Amino acid sequence: MMKVFRKLLFLLLLFFSTMLSAQVFEADGFKYEVIGDKEVAVSDIYGEEYHGNIVIPSTITYEWETYTVTAIAEEAFNDVEITGIEIPGTVTVIGGYAFCDCPMLKSIVIPNSVTLVDVGAFQDCSALESITLGSGLTDIKEEAFSYCTALKSVEIPAGVK
Q1: What is the pLDDT of residues 60-98, one digit of tens each?
Q2: What is residue 156's DSSP assignment?
């Protein structure tokens, strides 16, 4: 009886460790975290080809599964030398400090799908001159655009808290 229990326990541990290891993956120059059923957050970039202007895909296929990119994780592009970024209309959340200290980021268009720009999301983006906020935005957390010294003005949609 004890041997059967140990084998069952081993199989369960193996199963759960396999599931946990599949929670983060790399594809097409980005790292992703699985955050829901067929949903991922882009959590990092890798490789020289992603300096400059980058484009986040709306979907990504990994190991025969297609995931929708619905978030940009906390600190995903922190201190990266990007000049621009295209965010797909599938993203609903920009995480805390996601673009913090990106000294070359000049402009950003936040699509209508985004409802939350979290704490310090664009903090210390000293070259940031232009921000277009989507109409779906309802919540901008503190210091989201602090120390963006090149930023002249921002038009905040009516429904924002």
Answers
A1: 999 999 999 999 999 999 988 899 999 999 999 999 999
A2: P
